[in-house]
Amino acid sequence: LFAAWKSLMQNSSAVDAVVAGCGECEAEQCEHEVGAGGSPDEAGETTLDAMIMDGKTMDVGAVGCLRRVKTAIAVAKAVMTYTDHTLLVGDLATNFAIEMGFKETNLSTPYSIGMWKNWRNDKCQPNFRKNVSPKSDCGPYTPNHPFTDKNDQHFAQVHTRSRDISGKDNHDTIGMIAIDKNGDISAGTSTNGLTNKIPGRVGDSPIMGAGAYAENGVGASVATGNGDIMMRFLPTFNAVSQMRRGMDPDVALRIAIEPIVHFYPDFKGAMLAVNDKGKYGAICHGYPNWTFCVANPNIGDVIMINTTCLGFM
């Protein structure tokens, strides 16, 4: 956040401030959950998701499962700036990045490779597979027949396990909102996704309305947590829609998170929202607490705020 705040103090646009802030976290490999060197997939590879949204124009650029390029948020901005598309994914997103002058490099580090080897040595447990065999070892996997009681029992067991491994240490996304001197608003995200995810997985972070959403004159919202669940409800779009109806950020967030909790009472996630006047709110569910950062002219610097979460067992 320091880089984003510094950028705004130098009169940058909201979009450039978000790119600067997320880019700093990518470079610093924040908690090994953003940028290179963390969250290896089943094959041991680190891939990146990122998105930037301009609330003034409603333009969006995003990348999913980006391979071998460290600066995912900058590539997302390039998608927004140099194409008519919203989202590019996988190897072809990498090809686009190289065309735009980004450097191709290995995203793995000794730390991420060590994580992956430990997971392999533990028979690839836990993982995000369900309804497959083998259930307690590494693949290759084959689908189970879906119509037997025995398999139905297995389905429930695996589904519970898959929720449990999307916990506080396996969710972190950098989500950032900025309002510049002109009142223009932007929101963005960057992450290396879930540890041990199935190769090819794209989470909620690069999906407009799921990972982030922004609209001038209304506000913006960002989200983190179990993205495979949260993206089904477009929570950040919902939060901004509620603010458009006049709701304060805190109320908007509670309305946005309610349907997720209704269908998935054990889910873990958190959201931020800021309205166009700079009033902010936060909500989280399934963790004991959650910390976010704020900077504005009244505060004068970056501060950390801790909030108690809903639904923590």
TrEMBL record:
Class of the enzyme per the UniProt entry, highest EC level: hydrolase
Residues the record marks as active site: 173
Protein purpose: Cleaves the GlcNAc-Asn bond which joins oligosaccharides to the peptide of asparagine-linked glycoproteins.
Family of the protein in this entry: Belongs to the Ntn-hydrolase family.
Record keyword Chaperone present: no
Lineage, highest ranks first: Eukaryota, Metazoa, Spiralia, Lophotrochozoa, Mollusca
GO-annotated biological processes: proteolysis
Catalytic activity line of the entry: N(4)-(beta-N-acetyl-D-glucosaminyl)-L-asparagine + H2O = N-acetyl-beta-D-glucosaminylamine + L-aspartate + H(+)
CDD domains: Glycosylasparaginase (cd04513)
InterPro entries found in the cross-reference section: Ntn_hydrolases_N, Peptidase_T2
One Gene Ontology molecular-function label: N4-(beta-N-acetylglucosaminyl)-L-asparaginase activity
Organism, as annotated: Pinctada imbricata (Atlantic pearl-oyster)
Cleavage, annotated site positions: 172-173
Protein name in UniProt: N(4)-(beta-N-acetylglucosaminyl)-L-asparaginase
